[in-house]
Structures are given as structure tokens and as C-alpha cells.
Amino acid sequence: MKYLALLGILLLSQICWSQTSDDLMLFRQDFKGLSANNTVTITSYEKNDSHFVYVGGFKGIDVFSLNKDGQLTAVSKHEMYKIEGPARGMVADNINGTDFLFVANKHGDAIETFRILENGSLKQVSLTLDTEETYLGTAITLQVVHMKQASYLFVGGLEETPGLSSFKIEDDGKLTHVQSMADNEDIHTDGIIGMYTHKIKKKTYLYTGGFQDNGISSFRVEEDGSFKNINSISDNTTDRYLTGAYPVTGVELGGNNYVIVGHRHHKYYKRGGNFIKRKDFVYHGDAVSVFKVNRKGALVPHFVLKDDENTKLSGQTRIEIVSVNNNEAILAVGTRDDASIQLCKLDAAGTLSPVNYLETGFSIYYGLRSHRIGEENFLIAGSNQFDLRKVVAYKVAPKINRDGKILRHIVNLRYKDQASEEEVDNAVKMFLDLKDEIPGISDIEWGVNDSTEGASKGFTHSFVLTFEDEHAREVYLFHKAHLDLVSQIGPIIADVLVMDYWTKAP
């Protein structure tokens, strides 16, 4: 009876999953300002039932706690070596009972190791600088690989000294160099922006994407942290989409091992500039590529999800696994050029299909991280825009039916007593001008309080904005014109009350 009851629960959970996985959506829960100049990388970590988010950008790292409702609370901020950065490829892990955060300091040509304290804040314990035998120059990507007797940190770089390096992680967080392999024509390690590890039949394989090499490579990792190339796959101009290979992740489903690779095509960069090394590229679209891993750990092209008018896959910079069960995985694809997060479903046969997307209103530059608390799945995102300086938390949940409805956004303002009539009039004009600057605003109306009930709590001006959908509200919230308005009229605002509601369209 107990077995039958358990089987029934499992079957029910599978049914519920199948009913909702095709209709998931992102819902913004919270956003916070940053002390770093932008958001380049985000990671998260659970320590003693507490959940922390680490946001890296130019000059520093911001630490936040994350609660079960998706609310962020600032914990601390930390400067980096040379007060430089940006913080890239951050990864948190436990090494023999101690929690560490490893950070690639891109322009510092170094790897910084921090111990994660009880409250989530950081204490630097090690600084590993680049040498002639390592490839830490312009370090941007890190991957921890756990073997039976030790753990290793793999480091990928960009630009002048491309290659792949392996370091043993000591119990105190210090790094001991094991092996470095310079980039060459046979491997794709020039501009490693994504790495992923699969363990298959007690063997460990590491996969790297080469942004400049336009391809992806597979490596066998030995017990001592050394590694050797298994195979490499290059881009073509027909059915592969690896020009500017960027995010790399993977998942095991139905006994199959998959590697999922995204790319930010070189067409999105200045062809005549010095950054892109191979300028003879051919653009034939954007897509997410799925590779199957064979029994030898080698990559085999398997499936391609191509971008179209119903998806947001232009300029992929980060792919996160949101959730996995025996039959399918939910993925989130962050995009810089589409400024969106696209949710996708990967089934056990390795077929990738789009679910839903949210236009975030800001471009994502590698700063996207999935995190689970209890039964809730969250995505933490940030923008590389220097004028935004924010990190945003979203919940991934079943989509709410908004058919036939519009969204009202009400902003009530109370101006400071010393604000002049001219300053208030200018503030009103700036608010109304948003309709011409932000295309997602369907309508704006406003008025001065005329209530005589004595319950207006000093608020004098109300603005009602109308949006057709969630996308338009997100674009408005993080649009430069809106941010400029908040910045300019902020000094004369005493208080603000904001409320949103959905109502039937006229």
C-alpha cells in the first residue's frame, strides 16, 4: 500500500509538471541597487539553510541574502585586487568542509579566493597572479571539478594569452598550479566564456566554448587534475551556430548526457575593430545548439533551436538550468541583444523547444543565475549597463492568463515643502514626456489630489500609466528615460506610493 501511494504521488507530480512546464513565466520579485558599476557575473550559494547572491562587476562584489519570497537584502560589499575587476566567472563551492568563493579578476590577471563567512560576507584568503606558465591573463571563466581525492579549479581566459589552466584547490583555498594548455588550431580555448563538467561512468569530462575560435571542445580530466583533449567541433555556415560561442551548460536526462551551447555572434561587434580576431565570418542566424555526449566523452551535434519571430535568442550570454526531472529540463537563456530571458524545455530525446520569454528591459551580460529555495525556482539577473547598476530577482512559475486585460501602473507623489512651483511643473512635464520616449507606454493620465476626506497622507499628484503586458512594464521600469526621471526629480520628492493592477481592456 505504501508503495502504491508513493507511486501515485510520483505519477501525480509528473502530471502536474507536464501541465505547467509548457506554460512557465518569469515574475519579478525584487530589485536592488549595486555599489559596483555594473553587473557582469552572478552566482549564488546556500550555507546553513541561508541563501546568498554574489554580484560581480567593475571594482567590486556585492553580497545579498535571498529569502523564500525572492526578496534581496544587502549584506556587504567587497573591493577587488587593484580595485579593478570586473569580477568574472564567480563560482562558490565547499572544499573539505570550508565554503569558498572563487573569482576571476579579468583586468587584474588574477584569481581571488574568498572564504564565505556565516552571514554570507567574504574574507579574502588567497590571490593567484598570472605567470609565464599559466593562462590567467584576462581571466573570465572558472569551473570547479571534484575528483575522488581532491578538487580542482579550471580557468579560461581571453585575448592576449588564450588557453586552459588547472589548479589544485588546497584546504585553505590557495591554488597550486597543475597544468596549462595553450590555445592552438586543434582546440577551442581562445575566449573561454563557458565551461561545464559531466561525469560519465566514473570518468570526468570538461567542455569549453571558444568565443574567438568559434567552436567547442571536450577534455578528459584525470584524477590528478591534468587533462587532455578528446574532440573539438567548429562552426560552419549551415547548421551549426557557434560563432562567438558564449554560454556552456549541460544536463543528464533519460540516461543521456547533453551539452547546451549558446553564442553571441560576432556580427554584434564592430567587424573593423581589434577585438574580433577572425573577421571573415558569415552570419546565418542565432540559435542554441544541443550536443549529445558519446561514451568516450566526445561531443556529437544533436539538435538546434533557431531564433525566430516568436523567440528571444539574439546575443545569448548565459544559459542556466532552472529545474530537472527524469523527463525534461527547464532552461533560461539570457540575451544581451534581445534584452530578454527566454525559457526553454529540453526533453529526454535532446529536443529543445521554447516556452515563454520576458523582456527584461536591460541587456544581460553573463549575469544570470538560477537558484532554488524549497519548491520555488528563482532567477537572479543583472545588467552590464553602467547607468542601471541593479540586480533583479524573478520567480519562475506557471503563467497567469492575462487575455483581454491591461495593466495599470499608479504612481502617487508627495513633493517636499521646499520644492518650488516651477520644479513641480517641470517634474510633471518630465513624467508626461515618458510616453514619447518609452514605446511600451500605451497611455498616461495624471491629476492633482482633490480629495476632502483627509486620508491622502500628503500625496498631491497621481500618475496612471497603462501597459498592454508585462514586457512593456519591465521595459519602462529599467528604461534610461525612466531612470533619468527618477534621478532628476528624486531630490524634490518626499514620498512615493506605487501600485499596479490588472483590469479588463476597454
In spatial order, strands of the major sheet run: 1-28-27-26
Mean pLDDT: 93
For the secondary structure, the number of strands is 32
Strand content: over 45%
Descriptive notes:
There is one protein chain. The protein is built from 4 helices and 32 strands. The protein has 506 residues and is mostly beta strands. β15 and β16 form a beta hairpin. The radius of gyration is 24 Å and the shape is globular. It starts with a helix and ends with a strand.
Question: Would you summarize the structure shown here?
Answer:
By secondary structure, the protein is mainly β. It has four helices and 32 strands.
Question: What descriptors fit this protein?
Answer:
four-stranded antiparallel sheet, 4 helices, disordered N terminus, globular, single chain, mainly beta, 32 strands, 506 residues
Write the layout of secondary structure elements.
Layout: H1 2-20, E1 24-33, E2 41-47, E3 50-56, E4 60-66, E5 72-79, E6 87-95, E7 98-105, E8 110-116, E9 122-129, E10 141-146, E11 151-156, E12 163-169, E13 175-182, E14 192-200, E15 203-210, E16 215-221, E17 227-234, E18 245-253, E19 256-263, E20 287-293, E21 299-306, E22 316-324, E23 328-335, E24 340-347, E25 352-359, E26 364-373, E27 376-383, E28 390-398, E29 405-415, H2 421-437, E30 441-448, E31 461-467, H3 470-477, H4 480-489, E32 493-504
Antiparallel strand pairs: 1-28, 2-3, 3-4, 4-5, 6-7, 7-8, 8-9, 10-11, 11-12, 12-13, 14-15, 15-16, 16-17, 18-19, 19-20, 20-21, 22-23, 23-24, 24-25, 26-27, 27-28, 29-31, 29-32, 30-31
Helix pairs in contact: 2-4
